[in-house]
Structures are given as structure tokens and as C-alpha cells.
Amino acid sequence: xxxxxxxxxxxxxxxxxxxxxxxxxxxxxxxxxxxxxxxxxxxxxxxxxxxxxxxxxxxxxxxxxxxxxxxxxxxxxxxxxxxxxxxxxxxxxxxxxxxxxxxxxxxxxxxxxxxxxxxxxxxxxxxxxxxxxxxxxxxxxxxxxxxxxxxxxxxxxxxxxxxxxxxxxxxxxxxxxxxxxxxxxxxxxxxxxxxxxxxxxxxxxxxxxxxxxxxxxxxxxxxxxxxxxxxxxxxxxxxxxxxxxxxxxxxxxxxxxxxxxxxxxxxxxxxxxxxxxxxxxxxxxxxxxxxxxxx
Length: 295
Prior knowledge:
The chain contains 10 helices and 7 strands. By secondary structure, it is of the alpha/beta class.
């Protein structure tokens, strides 16, 4: 999978232009994707969902239409994936392909149409979580990156990083239990779910750190208060939205210039035609003879 094409503006890492990580979705005209794709990554308990809700409300108050996407939200396979995971018997490759199908369906039928319509798409996790989960479970990194080479490069990605100990405390406080898959129990096969959770989350964070160097996304300190994190995210997203407005203004100005030139050329052409000397045509011999007969 190719390295993300990114640029930095006012300290914010952004996609330089719309493009796919690899082969992408066939038949997609990237120039038609006028919206923005913003991703927030993070483990369960990182406060990711809270930040997404706050961002959506903030953007909509400012007049930006938004669409939310996330894991296991495909109309095609989300229910089947949820049911399959309840049995705790899915193989690693099967689980990876299940998630890839869920993602591909949302990309083609949700994300891309929304971007064409100029929406801000807020993704509650993206391919990075899916790749990290697969890699720490022993899947070949090159294979899983190729699977997700269909993905569109987001305009910005923010990863909420927290201490595994804080994550486990938040999950226990919220659910009074730890999730089988988020604890990596399918890997460790141990009765110590707490220890398995800590070990698994450390492995995931290690993989995210490696991916950060490759994909260039922003790492955000998730140990701070929700308000502080939200202010930091808004400041970074503000830069992206301003850049979008500037580009649209430039495109509009360029279009106006082209339209003005076209009008000038048309006016000149019309003027040249009006300034041409009129030529009186003599009637043909046949018409002249007919005229004399009728007289």
C-alpha cells in the first residue's frame, strides 16, 4: 500500500488531494469528491464516541452537513458480523475479510456518495484499527494492506492514545466487564482477561505507532479531559475546513475568469461580424430575366 499523500498546514497533517491508497474503487472520479473525510481512531474507552458526537454537533451548528460512519455499520453484513462475533469462534482471516466487506460496502455506498454531495464524513475508526487488529493476530501485514488498498485517503486522521490501564478502568466503569475481542482473548486463551486486555492494547498501540510513521496521522493525548481534547480537535479541523473554503474560492475565481474570457471572445467575434462591410448581391441572370417578363 502506498504511503499517504499528505501535507502539513499550520501544524495539521492533511491529504494533499483526494486519492486512494492503492487500486481504489473502479470508476470513481476523485475530482467529484468535494467533501471532507475526517477519521477519529482509538480503542474502546478512549472517549472516541464522545468526541465524534461533539464534533458532529459543532459542525452542524456551523452549517456543515455531516454523515457518520464506523465499524459494523454496513447494511450488507453488519448484522451477520455481529452475530458471528458472539460465538467467539471466528478465525483471524475470516474475521479480517468480514470486516473488509463491511468497510467496502460503506465506502462505496456511504462514504463516496456523501463526499460527492459535499458532506463532512466523520469516521468513527477506519482501516487503521482493522489492520492493527489483524496484524497483532498474526496476519501478514502486506496482505492486509493490500486488502485495504481500496480505501480513500482521509483528509485528516486523529488517533486518541491512552494508557492501557486507563482504558481498562474506563471499560470496567462503563460496562462492568471487558469485551472478549478487545481483550485479545482469542489470542491468549487465558482466564486472566484483565492481563490479556492490557497486553493486547499494548500490542495495538505499538502497531499504531508503527503505522503513524507510514500513514502520517495525528496522535492526540487522550489522557486529558474531553473538553480539552475537543478544543484541540476543533482547532485542527478548522484548518482543514478553511483550506477547503480557500480551494473552493480559488476554483470559483478561476471559473469566473474563464467565463469572462469566453464572453470577451464571443463579444469580439460578434463585433467583427457586425463590422464586416455589407455586400450587395446582384440577382442571378435567371432572376433578372424573370423580373423583366413579369414587368
